Amino acid sequence: xxxxxxxxxxxITGAAMAVQHSEAMDFLSQSVTGMNGEKxxxxxxxxxxxxxxxxxxxxELGGMKRFVKPGQKVVIKPNIGWDKVPELAGNxxxxxxxxxxxxxxxxxxxxxxxxxxxxxxxQKCYKNxxxxxxxxxxxxxxxPAHLESYYRPVSLPHGKVMKSAKIHEAILDSDxxxxxxxxxxxxxxxxxxxxxxxxxxVWDRGYFHQHDLQQCIADxxxxxxxxxxxxxxxxxxxxxxxxRGRSVSDVVLTKTLFLSQDIVAVDTAATKFFNxxxxxxxxxxxYLANGQExxxxxxxxxxxxxxxIKL
Length: 311
Description:
Elements: H1 3-13, E1 17-18, H2 21-28, E2 42-46, H3 50-60, E3 73-78, H4 94-106, E4 111-114, H5 122-128, H6 131-137, E5 141-142, E6 151-155, E7 164-168, H7 169-172, E8 176-180, E9 182-186, E10 190-192, H8 206-210, H9 213-220, E11 229-238, E12 251-260, H10 263-274, H11 286-293, E13 306-310
Parallel strand pairs: 1-12, 2-13, 3-4, 3-8, 4-5, 8-11, 9-11
Antiparallel strand pairs: 2-12, 6-7, 9-10, 11-12
């Protein structure tokens, strides 16, 4: 769907529903349970534009220079899976992608590459998501992912069901990669967030669906190298009919962002936040517990030092 078609749809259905701040702040207003002086494990920011929320979040973690060193090759892996404009929340917000690229170059990155193994036609997805233009304007390279030749086999010795996978060469050749999913409902996995976003670095996604989807999502996250950061875009959130969505009525304007190195924790926090809009029990998102069992991170947010910010 191009922007002209989207505007026609918007005129018919009305603007995207906005979540009430009094409800959305329930998660963000919980007291920080970590001890004073400890490092921050997770940052949750609400109430502003994607680029401003990321700037504040990364500042709270000590700045991008903590994660990206001069001369490094960086990969940013958003969700670009669908031929959808940003207002329909099928893909990561392009403003957020732009800001992360800029922060990487500011930290001294030699090059930044952006890619995703899309579900719809890759060229349409890259263009209509706004991410291709956003990446190029910020100085990053766009890399395709639609051919098997882009992928190399990798062993997953710690996986329970998935013991190997073909991984996109951009990830394998990078010094640092940053995982930037959008928070949304998913028909098969129930939620699509940071762990689920790993399916976009794999060639054979059919394997996930033909076997134990929830376990395979956890298994693929045992991959080395792991993402150095997980940035969850919840500026707009798809509450129903995910992962593709149907119309603007599926979208809630929540203006929130989560940032953590702990992929299980950030997905747990994002799922709790999703519950402010639609009921989604944590035990229905089985890959969270599966990931915790594989020691990828923790679901116990009470043990973490969480910085909650309202802009």
